[in-house]
Amino acid sequence: MAQYAIGDLQGCYDPFRRLLDKIAFDPDRDRLWVTGDLVNRGPKSRKTLRYVRSLGEAAITVLGNHDLHLIALANDIRQAGNNYESLKKILTKDDCGELIDWLRFRPLAHYSADLNTLMVHAGLPPQWSVDDTLGCAAELEKALRSDSYVDFLEEMYGDKPRKWSDKLTGNQRRRFIVNSLTRIRMIRKGGALDFSHKGPPDDAAKGLLPWFAVEDAKWRGTRIVCGHWSALGLIVNDDLIAVDTGCVWGRQLTAVRLDKGPTVIQVRCKK
Predict the structure, then answer these.
(1) Backbone angles phi, psi at 49, to 5 degrees
(2) What percent of the residues of the chain are helix, what percent strand, and what percent coil, each to the nearest 5?
(3) Model pTM score
(4) Which of 8, 102, 181, 185 has the smallest CB count inside 10 Å?
């Protein structure tokens, strides 16, 4: 069985299928680890959603910030502006409800002990171990899968609190968790989240570090797979596999084999 991590799809269905052909993906034998953001910006968000769902257990996908935004739009928590034209198309289709319910039941973190590898969409705060991450992800998953999940969506948006504390409770705690797992890029000295920088790490203001560069982070010792940060580009080492290589911006869609190598396979994309 081959296991591949694949970066943010963002509705880029055709490059995704070309990449699967290139790796000779067999859903009866192989497994995909998809880093989330299945939807938005690309031309075929609905088709991408439907296809990933059709793969069943052959595709493990964690929720990204755009996936969560689609769930919020479907429940009238936010309005779909000009940046979300592809999501509007999903909202008007007869199968919108079943696609949203399928998304709601996706995990926010996935861990394999055999590979000593943890997948999240964006990253981790330095205060969390792998067990902390899985526990916090489970809290959000419980909220999203409950009958009262709309209550969580109404409080999901916002940048605060910026720093983790075990004493955080309720919506404050859940908002920090969702921001860490689906939005994090940079960390300030002292461990606070910072959302001001989206470009390459080398262009960040003084005092900001990429989340994965904090030396004493509690998650160290486990390989992390993530997407979310297209300006970061491809990183493949013993600690980190970052696979958002900007397909939707006209760069590449990337697969990295996790169980061997690792081996990098890419296809070119059109903006």
Answers:
(1) -55, -50
(2) 35, 15, 50
(3) 0.95
(4) 102
Q: Each residue of 200-246: pLDDT tens digit?
A: 999 999 999 999 999 999 999 999 999 999 999 999 999 999 999 99
DSSP class per residue in 93-135? STTHHHHHHHHHTS-S-EEETTTTEEE-SS---TT--HHHHHH
Q: State phi, psi for 161 to the nearest 5 degrees.
A: -75, 155
Residue 77 — very low, low, confident or very high, per pLDDT cuts 50/70/90? confident
- In the chain, what are the domains? 3-268 (3.60.21.10)
142: which DSSP letter?
A: H
Element (H, E) at 17: helix 13-22
State which amino acid sits at residue 271. K
Nearest to 153 by CA among 173, 137, 174, 135: 174
